[in-house]
Amino acid sequence: MHTSWSDSIQKAPAAAGPANARGSRSSYVPPHLRNRPPSAEQPSAPVSYAGAAMGNDHQGYGGPPVGGIRSVAPSNDRNGGGGGDGWHSRNSSWDRGREREANPFQDTLDTEQAFGAQESTGINFDAYEDIPVETSGKNVPPPVNTFADIDLGDALNLNIKRCKYVRPTPVQRYAIPISITGRDLMACAQTGSGKTAAFCFPIISGIMKSHQSAPRPPRMPRMAFPLALILSPTRELSVQIHEEAKKFAYQTGVRAVVAYGGAPINQQLRELERGVDILVATPGRLVDLLERARVSLQMIRYLALDEADRMLDMGFEPQIRKIVQQMDMPPPGMRQTMLFSATFPKEIQRLAADFLSNYVFLAVGRVGSSTDLIVQRVEYVLETDKRSHLMDLLHAQRANGDQSKIAAIPCKAILWNSSRNALNLLRFFDVWFPDPGLRFWLQQSLTLVFVETKKGADSLEHWLCINGFPATAIHGDRTQQEREYALRSFKSGKTPILVATDVAARGLDIPHVSHVVNFDLPNDIDDYVHRIGRTGRAGKTGLATAFFNDNNSSLARSLADLMQESNQEVPAWLSRFAARSSFGKNRRGGGGSGGRFGGRDFRRDASFNRGGMDFYGGAQINSGGYGGPAGAYGGGYGPTTTVTSAWD
Length: 648
Ligand SMILES: Nc1ncnc2c1ncn2[C@@H]1O[C@H](COP(=O)(O)OP(=O)(O)OP(=O)(O)O)[C@@H](O)[C@H]1O
What we know:
By secondary structure, the protein is of the alpha/beta class. Helices cover about 35% and strands about 15% of the residues. Helix 22 packs across helix 23.
């Protein structure tokens, strides 16, 4: 019997022993007292942000006083490299806390041993060299070139190494220094470009640094007082962010907990009672926890919305307003707010401004664009021909060997070492050994097929299976257990085809997805951008095929524009469709009336800036390359290169 994700999350602390579990329930242990960083290494000449001009009311390095509850740490506390006693001199008597923490890198280590450490060596950075970057806002802190340029803290730096992140991605180069100086941020960067770390690192680092001087939360034993809240639109994405956050926060003393719907609330409550610094949650479950008075947001210093445009669209906006504006969360300026997405329509930017204070706008690549790493194909396929066309694609894929060219997923390194030849043989015959003692099988490259309806997903999954293509499906009518099982089965390659509705469109980072098929195209081009972004991640290339017919004509123009922007070949017939479709409707770039795409910071619009108000204080447009510029800020990482704006 398989264990669910939620089970495994719940098991991790339990595995550490009941005594610890009991002990931790009675009183909250502040994170800085739970662990010490394992390494005494000093960061190498980190950039100090203590003197950076702060546009917010935020004081000092890492954040504001919150609602008058938290005192502000002296700036040397927050600048560990600056000689303050920060986290470098924590009390070692609490080291035992570290023993309770399951090693989140264990699976990765097994995998690496089995792969001979070939996999997960990181991003192909060359793919990001020429990406244009725009920042706007007052006194934008300069970008960095390496993680060592930022004083993130020893324990976090060690985890960055464990993750094999050698260099920051462009969004990380810009977003981390901006956030670490306490500025609010609206960041837009392409799918798969490392946004999760871009908001997690400053949060973890900030919590590590400030706990030394932070007061304890109010004495309310059954209520959790997180310091950071990360909201995401789907359960699976929240689970994924939590998994990432646990890796980044390993042995830092910062504890991340996840809460999402569809899983038993009691287990999540128990986790919260054990203490929480970073709460990763879906909005619905969080509202439930707030209404039960089991979570208070009064200590929140960091608020991050992942997929922020989705979180603020009509579906989620009321819940988000309730959480952020109508409960006890400190207001903008008294907390630090970070909004991230690959797409940011202008009207959503406008809404989002309510949640921010004197923020920096960051766009890496064109707002809402797709990455050039994804080869996009559009084929004209009648509704009635879609299944047979998909079958043709899958057969061709199989014939080309695309189904089995990745390596094996591992389990026991010993097994791998002693049976390398056997494994090669197995790879050749495409054999899978489900026996747990021989837990390795061929990792196939994976195909994700998007459909419009839940019924459509079920029926296509069934049809694929009976036609010899092992498939599974994920959608909102499946139980959480079924959803988790489907995702795990897909990730492992056991069912290398996943049929999905938009529930899987955003944020999910599934290695080896080499092909995304838009069996049914979405109505909104932003949804298309997120869907195809499940492939071509972290510098890898991918293929996206869309089945287009007359039912999709309203998308023709925006699709053609997007493909052109991403240097894709636009079929002549699609250009004709685009020319026929009404001007301005679902058009990219925000140029046409009613255009909903924010090509840049909406504050730069004349209509917004009417009356001479200087909302953004100028923009810098840079190439994202590593010898790159620091813009007009004068931070100096090489010559300043102002390139032609991709936004004008
Ligand atoms: N500096 C780095 N070096 C190497 N790999 C990285 C780095 N930063 C992130 N990654 C990896 O890149 C992949 C994509 O990251 P992530 O999921 O954060 O992308 P994203 O921008 O949030 O995508 P999406 O828009 O789809 O949500 C992950 O597997 C992550 O581990």
